[in-house]
TrEMBL record:
InterPro entries: TVP23-like. Signal peptide: none annotated. The chain crosses the membrane at residues 34-52, 58-76, 125-146, 152-171. Belongs to the TVP23 family. GO terms for cellular component: Golgi membrane. GO terms for biological process: protein secretion; vesicle-mediated transport. This is Golgi apparatus membrane protein TVP23 homolog. The keyword RNA-binding does not apply. It is a multi-pass membrane protein. It comes from the Eukaryota. Keywords: Membrane, Transmembrane, Transmembrane helix. It is found in: Membrane.
Amino acid sequence: MRQVMMDDTEDVSLDFGAEEEELALRKNKIRHPLATFFHLFFRVSAIITYLFCDWFSRSFIACFVTILLLLSFDFWSVKNVTGRLLVGLRWWNQVDDDGTSHWIFEARKPSSQGKTVGGEAESKIFWLGLIVCPIMWAIFVFSTFFSFKLKWLAVVMLGASLQVANLYGYIKCKVGSGKTLTSMATSYLGRQFLKSAMTKEESPEP
């Protein structure tokens, strides 16, 4: 009887790292490949066109229009599509009925199960493209100014302005609006003041 029971039992190998590996694969998986592609395509294409447009065309107007279109497509897609899909951030301007303009910065909260909008790979690609490209356009501004290529100054300043605008908007979404930061600072100072007052009251008199 004992021999039969031993034969019926099976060795079960417990792989405690399987769930962690699966979670890591999900984080590194690109869930929105099309959005990730266009997040980099327009801005990288604008930079490449600016650097090598003289090789393809001698017309300054054609180069200017091409770069302007690429920058416009990039600004619209990053502001309205890729930021929402890849990192769950969104910012826009709202005008009330009385004509008052408000800038709104939103960040989507994780789900109750702790799932975020995009994976870590998508988030890294998003922020890398969002930070590196404005730096390059800023370098182009200085190089154009000091090399006296003044006809390109409007192009590079436009590129830097649009790229920095998106970067600033998403940083505001990430860290919170100014009102939120002010309320957090006020709440923190209030708690510290109350704690200090209670400590003084509880301390025994000499």
